[in-house]
Specification:
Blueprint lengths: L44 E3 L16 E2 L7 H11 L26 E3 L1 H4 L23 H10 L3 H7 L13 E8 L2 E8 L2 E4 L2 E2 L11 H12 L14 E3 L4 H10 L3 E5 L21 E12 L2 E9 L21 H8 L7 E5 H7 L2 E5 L15 E9 L12 H4 L5 E5 L8 E9 L15 E7 L9 H6 L4 E2 L8 E8 L2 E9 L6 E9 L5 E4 L4 E2 L1 H4 L13 H15 L1 H4 L3 H4 L1 H15 L10 H21 L6 E3 L3 H7 L2 E2 L2 H11 L5 E3 H21 L11 H6 L6 H24 L17
Parallel strand pairs: 1-13, 2-5
Antiparallel strand pairs: 1-8, 3-6, 4-5, 6-7, 9-10, 9-13, 10-11, 11-12, 14-21, 15-20, 15-22, 16-19, 16-21, 17-18, 17-20, 23-25, 24-26
């Protein structure tokens, strides 16, 4: 694929049925519903949304079953046939809730099976073609236009609409369809009860009254997204100007079996489904079904054939009628032999560019649309999420939290032309249609790419403060997928996908397409503990003369050891949770407890040093001296303490200890760090060969819990309670320089 500007394709947008296409040229369009608002454009605009159709031919058994009971289509059909009953889908019942979630059904709906609607129902009648796609009362023209184009690619259609489904002796009221959804095939089972009014289908239907594959396909996709209403409305995409050779690109695309669609933008909701003077409908999705070049009056004329899923509203301009009298009858018959009467029309290419704003091409093969050479694209796929309080940092405008977003390291090794590497980055948010019934719509998303050093780990705030991005999505937009193509010099890069605002949660899928196999990508999802921070330091030999600090610490130790019962009265200041957690850590830290419960001063000193370190770390992240730190700073605080967590664990820790304002107070901070350090210590003890994994049984879990007598428990508990009480007082003082003298008694009488 050349590295000139027009070297990325975007596919035909078919949300959920989104058969992924190979990026090959920058010609694409947003197939959308009229309710979606779009930016006005004086000329044809092109969009990107790379989707790859799997190169291998996948069998039905390779699709993932989606039924809640885990049963496959074959199992369910067999059970129904054995029982002599018709299937009723418990996951998508024939109720109003399957139709709409935000409004009541305005008329009385009857759910009927095809056998109740007509006498001789057929699943597919005389082959599936684009005339089988007629829009009903639902505003999902973007889906209909996509399915109409899919019918022109028989192999792909057979994958989405599996064969061997018919109203014959194996009929059991159950059908299934397969959708390419978030990088995997899903097998969706439905019963054949369809919504009707006065015995007429009210949703998608075929022009033939006894053909039902398209209506059942729409129902399966509605089930995948939660309801029929979830299919209403498409989404806009980032725009690009049309290349000069657009007609040739479109012709090559159709010659190779690609699918195409087009649409006209609207500038306000008042223009939704508005009909122009030339018979076209704004904000409506059309299918492109043919591209031809004919001789008319001694000149070459470029023509485009377009189909409206509605079927009845057509272009009334040039080449809608009399112009066909100016070409040879044989050529006319050749061109018109595959044309349909209902909703399909021809228009001159120049008129096409003047009237339509967007085009999208879904290339179903790895062939380039701009040259004959075949190119194989490598793809890397990662799934992740933005969780508020830990990894939902927002865009670069929010520098204090931006660095907490998930980070991916991209290695570009070999240049594919002009000493640059071609890469396509596609960021998709998952399952947003299904979440509409919960009041959640598409998030505003985007991404940025930074150049980094070779061995860079998860970078912090200062890196983004002083380094600009080398590439980024052109804009943040509330669309299902944001995709861009870049040409970058070989090197190491950091990819940061984000929502526009912080604290917004969503699941995402990120795909990186590259031309050479040398490129690789990995998520900076570390799980590291610094051994030097956890191994017990060697006990220092007592100096000939103790320092002033050591003398004060020894006096404190002697006081605590000699006044156990009185110290326990301070429990109310700290809380039972503190006492339990710190006690366990204390026992593990000193690591020298015997059955008599004796603790040496040097061991107590080690624990004291750790407490001092923790409080200084907390103060360094409590920048406003509020007694709390941002949960987004937890990654940095734990790293400073010697622990680096992967994103899933960090998200769980944030959810456990952060409050509703995404803040962590000192008590919870200390509890968190104690628990994690204990976990690391236990793991290290069991991982004797440093393999990074352990196997445990219940007895090993019990033996790793300290076992001390009640008297010793009371002694240590009082000690820990008193220490943490002093630490809390210290935080209230807000004097970070007082750690040496405030916490230590100055004399035996203090």
């Amino acid at each position: 694929i050349p590295t000139v500007d027009h070297s990325v394709v975007a596919p035909f947008r078919l949300e959920g049925v989104d058969l992924p296409a190979l990026p090959t040229c920058q010609t694409c369009l947003c197939i959308k519903h009229s309710a979606a608002l779009h930016h006005a454009s004086p000329h044809l605009l092109l969009l990107h949304s790379p989707r790859f159709f799997p190169k291998e031919k996948m069998s039905t058994s390779q699709a993932e079953n989606t039924q809640s009971d885990g049963k496959s289509f074959e199992q369910l059909r067999h059970e129904c046939l054995m029982k002599g009953v018709l299937f009723e889908d418990p996951d998508f019942p024939a109720k109003d809730s399957s139709l709409f979630f935000s409004e009541k059904v305005p008329v009385h709906i009857e759910w009927k099976r095809p056998t109740e609607i007509c006498k001789n129902p057929k699943f597919i009648l005389d082959g599936a073609d684009r005339t089988d796609i007629c829009q009903g009362q639902l505003g999902d023209c973007w889906l209909l236009a996509a399915v109409a184009s899919l019918t022109m690619k028989k192999e792909a259609l057979a994958r989405v609409v599996p064969p061997d489904q018919e109203f014959n002796q194996r009929y059991a009221g159950i059908f299934h369809f397969q959708f390419w959804n978030h990088n995997k095939w899903l097998d969706v089972v439905v019963d054949d009860r369809l919504p009707t009014v006065r015995n007429q289908l009210i949703m998608l239907h075929s022009a033939s009254s006894n053909e039902f594959w398209s209506a059942l396909l729409e129902k399966a996709y509605a089930k995948l997204n939660g309801s029929y209403e979830s299919l209403k409305g498409g989404s806009t995409m980032e725009t690009k100007a049309a290349p000069g050779d657009l007609f040739n690109i479109m012709k090559k695309a159709l010659d190779r079996g690609s699918m195409m669609g087009c649409s006209i933008d609207i500038t306000s909701s008042a223009e939704s489904e508005a009909k122009t003077s030339t018979g076209l409908v704004k904000g409506h999705a059309y299918s492109i079904t043919g591209v031809e070049e004919v001789n008319a009056r001694g000149q070459k004329v470029k023509l485009v054939r377009i189909r409206n899923p509605w079927g009845q509203v057509e272009w009334n301009g040039a080449w809608s009628d009399k112009e066909w009298n100016y070409i040879d009858s044989a050529e006319k018959n050749r061109i018109m032999q595959n044309s349909a009467d209902d909703g399909e029309f021809w228009m001159e290419f120049e008129d096409f560019k003047r009237n339509y704003d967007k085009v999208e091409i879904c290339n179903m093969s790895p062939d380039s649309l701009t040259e004959d050479t075949k190119h194989q694209w490598a793809v890397n796929v990662f799934e992740g999420n933005w969780i508020r309080g830990s990894t939902a940092g927002g865009c670069r405008n929010y520098i204090d939290t931006f660095w907490t977003n998930p980070q991916f390291k991209l290695l570009l090794n070999d240049a594919d032309g002009d000493n640059t590497c071609s890469v396509v980055i596609a960021l998709m948010q998952k399952n947003r249609r299904k979440l509409r019934k919960e009041g959640l719509d598409l998030e505003t998303i985007g991404f940025a790419v930074y150049e980094v050093w070779k061995n860079t780990d998860h970078v912090g705030k200062d890196f983004f403060r002083y380094n600009g991005s080398k590439a980024r999505s052109r804009t943040y937009i509330n669309m299902r997928e944001v995709a861009e193509r870049f040409t970058l010099p070989p090197g190491n890069y950091l990819l940061v996908p984000t929502t526009f605002q912080p604290h917004h949660e969503a699941d995402f899928l990120i795909r990186v397409f590259s031309e050479t196999k040398a490129e690789s990508i990995k998520q900076l999802n570390v799980f590291i503990l610094s051994l030097c921070c956890f191994h017990q330091p060697p006990m220092p030999s007592p100096p000939e003369e103790e320092t002033k600090e050591e003398k004060g610490l020894r006096r404190l130790f002697e006081q605590l050891a000699g006044s156990v019962r009185k110290a326990s009265s301070k429990e109310g200041f700290v809380g039972k949770l503190f006492s339990t957690m710190l006690l366990r850590f204390f026992l593990d830290t000193v690591n020298q407890v015997d059955n008599t419960g004796k603790i040496e001063f040097q061991e107590f000193k080690v624990f004291w040093e750790k407490l001092k370190k923790w409080i200084m770390l907390f103060l360094s992240f409590d920048t406003d001296r509020s007694g709390k730190m941002s949960s987004y700073e937890l990654r940095g605080a734990l790293k400073a303490a010697g622990m680096q967590l992967n994103n899933p664990l960090l998200q769980l820790v944030g959810l456990r200890f952060a409050d509703e304002n995404y803040e962590i107070d000192f008590d919870d901070y200390l509890t968190c760090i104690v628990r994690l350090e204990n976990m690391f210590r236990v793991f290290q003890a069991l991982d004797k060969f440093n393999r990074g994994r352990v196997q445990m049984n219940i007895m090993q879990v019990n033996t790793n819990t300290p076992n001390v007598n009640p008297e010793f428990f009371s002694t240590v508990s009082s000690t820990v309670l008193y220490l943490t009480y002093l630490m809390r007082l210290f935080i209230q003082v807000r004097d970070s320089q007082a750690v040496r003298h405030f916490m230590l008694p100055l004399s035996p009488n203090n």
